[in-house]
Amino acid sequence: MHSIARGNPSKNGVTLSNSLPEPYIKRTVEGNLGLKYNIDTLKKLAEDKADFPGFSQLVEKFYQGKLPESEEEKACHVFLSRLAVETAMDQHTGRLEVVYGPMAKW
Question: Structurally, how many domains does the chain consist of?
Fold first, then answer.
């Protein structure tokens, strides 16, 4: 994932919690989300979200490094790819949380 931004808050009343400046160009590598070498991670993430029959059997082919052939395998591959990108974005971006201090919320 790549980000090119100043990293400054875009909403009023938002304060950065860390004191280190964010780089203007940022790149992160989510090495735990591969469709081949780290399929176990994606399979665990997908178990609650996969809504098609035979999901586990479809994923088994990916353990062997085979490309999808059938329409069901292709759908599973696309599903896992989207899940990997979604999870990588969640890991790459920061979090917003309300913090209450002695005078008000931050």
Answer: 1
